[in-house]
Structures are given as C-alpha cells and as structure tokens.
Amino acid sequence: MKLSFHGQSTVYFEANGKKVIIDPFISGNELSDLNVNELEVDYIVLTHGHADHFGDTVEIAKRTGATVIGSAELADYLTTAKGIENVHPMNIGGQWKFDFGTLKFVQAFHSSSLTDDNGIPVYLGMPMGVIIDIEGTTVYHTGDTGLFSDMKLIAERHPVDVCFIPIGDNFTMGIDDASYAINSLIKPRITVPVHYDTFPLIEQDPEKFKAKVTEGEVQILKPGEEVRL
After folding, report:
1. Where is the Metallo-beta-lactamase domain (predicted)?
2. Please, what's the largest Cα pairwise distance for the chain?
3. Is the pTM value of this prediction over 0.85?
C-alpha cells in the first residue's frame, strides 16, 4: 500500500488497484508537489467544504471521472451546482465498503462552507473526520477539528495505525491540543502532522509537536513523501 502526504491536509493512497486522494488542495497551494492536470485518481474523499480542502475537486472529477465521497450536502452541491455525476453521499457515523477499502465518517468540530461566485458562503454539511481500513491498516484523517474527548471512543472502536492530525492552530488544534489528542485519546502507531505552514496564520514548527508526543512514532513528511509503515 502507498500512503503519502502532499501539503496542507492532502493525503493520497493506492490500495486494491485504486487511487484515492483526500482533500485535494493543489492549485493555489505553494506547498503542494502535485500537478492537478496530471493527477489520475479513482476516488476523491472530502472531509468538508472549505476551499483549502475542497480545492481542485471539480476539475479533477470532471477530467478523470473520479467518484467524490463526502457529506450529503457536498454531494448535492457537486451534482446540482457543478454537474458532477459520480458522487457518493455519506454522513457522520455512516460506513461503506468501497473497492479500495472500508470508509467511515466520524465527527469533527469545525465548520464547512464554500464561497460562491457572488461572495456568499454556501453551507456544505457537517465537517467530518474519516476512518479508512486500507488492506488491514486503519487510517484516521481527523479533518479540520478542535480537540474533543470522543476521539478516544473513535480510537477504541477503530484502533488507529496512522493518524493525520492538524497542528496549525488558529483554525484547528494547535501543537498542545494535538499532542494531547495523540498521547491520551487516539494513541496511534504512527502520527503525521498536517495543516500547518500553508498560510501565515498556521505557521508552526512540527518538531515542537514531535517533541511533545510520547505515544507511537511521529513522521514529519515533506509534500510527496510516503508514510513509512
């Protein structure tokens, strides 16, 4: 299995012959190593509707025919406003077995909207984290979120091998809350910090996060690097 990080909160993996990308924020992301015009995927998974996660979803889906997996509201928006036909609507607590693995959305404490062409925010459903069982490896992408105690319940129900967790602060957890979540609630085998340094408001030193984590291994990845499983 290939599992890699590509700046901000973008994660890519290949499993069972399928190519999947989570939160494809590529264009406008100076830290991304990907080329939106060359990327080939079978699925796009969205945690929420903010532009730095929704990103290039429409362009990629139209060019590749990829199925977009996200909240019911996101799916409706993509179909009615953007003409994307291949969508799979889901919601918090729901699980589905796809040909790449089993995916389940869980709660995240954040917001979710996208600004339309008139400058008006469009509500796009609840923000979500995602649990994916990929060839026997459990990946927890927390999405954008603040700290919440039910992370412990989520991890008890789905023991986590790899956790992608935001450390940028201001909009999400910062280093202190994220390290607490890893040490006391989630306790994954491997942690990858995400959602930092893309903009001035979320500039952080991931080494400070790593120094605070006592549970499992922290892998600080540059865009394009793979998780060492």
Report:
1. 7-195
2. 47
3. yes
